[in-house]
Amino acid sequence: MAKERTLGRYQLLFVPRLVIQPLVAYYSLHFLPFIFPAAKNVFSWVPFFWGFAIIAVADDLTQYWYHRLHHQVPWLWRFHRTHHSASYMGMAMASRQNVIYTIFFSQIYLTAALVYLGLGIPAIAVRAIKSTITTLAHSSIPWDKPFYKYKVLNPIAWVLERLISTPATHHAHHAATTDDGVGHYKGNFGNMFFLWDIIFGTALISRKYPSAYGISHYEGDQWTAQLLWPIFKSKVEGSELAPNGPMVRLEDDHEALIRREKNKAKKETTQITVVPALSNN
pLDDT (tens digit, 9 = 90+) per residue, 160-175? Predict the structure, then answer.
């Protein structure tokens, strides 16, 4: 069982990013010549700086809305739920995705199209920088904390936390509750640029880190369901990924956390059998 869970964790972390995304990009670049044969490299004259700027904005802005819609449209939430089901944060979390969610990543197709149009080198540069920022934003290491702690660095912090995603802002998006004023899973959708949250009014900047991560009512779905829902369904009754499960399981954050802690305590508690004292008579 433990081996299966470990295998499932690796599948969740690496299949979407290392297998699905490259395959989608590869076949997109082979398909585009059949549709737009005359468009190949038509933008190759664009200077690197402007190509980089165009791709960075187009790629990340489309992902912001793709990400946001998966939180706000109930039917779409279940495809993105896998990314939030872990009760911890770490760099590898950036790759934890449902396969279907990854296949329809809008920015993969957009970036592939821009590469076909002649912006390949800027696209690679954007990809490298974006991957670094999103990975560090998921990091369990609060590397942004010194910017908040030391006053001399506060001006840098003010710019940094509004421009790109940092552990404080993105961890808030992965919080299990909003009751503490830190968690903000209904906002902070930015991936590379946090600026989109500032512009579209979905930002919460607290400079603090949540006390708990994940989904407050999560009780453990099989890795196959998390990776390949709706092809495989969860066996956990009441799960959004279960057959006939709710699109979104509505439950008060505070009550859900209390219930989860109680269930955890019950599992860890050893039953004590009371033996009646023997009579001396």
Answer: 999 999 999 999 999 9
